[in-house]
Amino acid sequence: MPDRAAEPAISGLRLNLRIVSVVIFNFASFLTIGLPLAVLPGYVHDVMGFSAFWAGLVISLQYFATLLSRPHAGRAADTLGPKHVVILGLCGCFLSGLCYWLAAETQAWPLASLALLCLGRLILGVGQSLAGTGATLWGVGVVGSVHIGKVISWNGVVTYGAMAVGAPLGALCYAWGGLRLLAGVIMGVSLLAALLALPRPKVTASKGKPLPFRAVLGRVWPYGMALALSSTGFGVIATFITLFYQAKGWDGAAFALTLFSAAFVGGRLLFPNGINRLGGLNVAMICFAVEALGLLLVGLAVTPLMAKMGTLLAGGGFSLVFPALGVVAVKAVPQHNQGSALATYTVFMDLSLGMTGPLAGVMMAYAGVPMIYLASAALVLAAMGLAWRLKKRPLTQAPEAGETRQ
């Protein structure tokens, strides 16, 4: 992928429009994730008659497939070019919708229908890996690597926006026309996005010998570990804030989640140039401090207002962590390996969110709900310490093409 940092500077509205014109394809891929999210568990359990285990497994399969396919998606973006990978990912989203439609048609054969739903979730996970990684690298190729932080930030905005819109829209589609209509909308969104992507100018994949996965991991893991530690805050708030409010005997858990989401999106929209001005590690350390303070307020809350202030600060603090550390992580490898670096870096967040739920659940059972927020605050402070160490003792600069060791 060519580095366009040397081109005349793009700024303001024009820059944002260029970025949005590409990351909108990631919006489409995440919309296909959000649409069935509120429907499939109830469909599997209540309509098909399977246990809650199977209802949960159908949802989890997508995240499992995303986790396993991310490194391959990054390598594909580096070698095939981001545009081709985005279109392949959108085709995967289309096929997932087709599987849902076939599952509805085979409802009379529950095992076959369940198998089709599981297959659709697996395909969707791979499709999201391809579309998400490809859209980010495509955006960087369009506006130049100097704006990589802003591209990653916009990807986060469209991701959470699509999930927020998708869940209620999917429930509405299901209420109007059942699983068939929901599947049709998913296929339509995917197909439309793929057709709109086809005429868009592509950016050429960079030429150069790719680093092996182990070498990429060796350069990215410190930043990924800091991301994983801080992601526990998002995990415990998204998963357990309702139980926290119930344990306290308070109302308003949904509004607390809304405050977290609003602060998250607002942070990315209000401080788009902070990473370029202050540097990724400096922004990350500020974010860790704010997030840790928010988690402490939640864990120590004695009033609903105190808990809501905590979720607001935690959302605002976590907002820029991913792009701030991602900028530094991606620049730790040669340009023709940036897709692999971004995908490997993202895996740490996937693992963190996957592990936070069960581990926090065990801690909550033994130590109470507030303790998980205090423990998460401690982990976020550990992430800040790791970022401080990386700032004082930075890793070796990106290797030259063909170099495989640090």
TrEMBL record:
Cellular localization per UniProt: Cell inner membrane; Cell membrane
Keywords, in A-Z order: Cell inner membrane, Cell membrane, Membrane, Transmembrane, Transmembrane helix, Transport
Primary location group: membrane
Domain Major facilitator superfamily (MFS) profile: 18-395
Gene Ontology molecular functions: transmembrane transporter activity
Topology of this chain in the membrane: Multi-pass membrane protein
Spans traversing the lipid bilayer: 20-41, 47-65, 85-103, 109-140, 152-172, 178-199, 220-247, 253-271, 283-306, 312-330, 342-366, 372-390
Gene3D superfamilies: MFS general substrate transporter like domains
GO CC annotation, single: plasma membrane
HAMAP family named in the record: MFS_YhhS
Family, per entry: Belongs to the major facilitator superfamily. YhhS family.
PANTHER family assigned: MAJOR FACILITATOR SUPERFAMILY MFS_1, RESISTANCE PROTEIN MDTM, PUTATIVE-RELATED-RELATED
Name assigned to this protein: Uncharacterized MFS-type transporter ACH50_21440
Organism field: Franconibacter pulveris
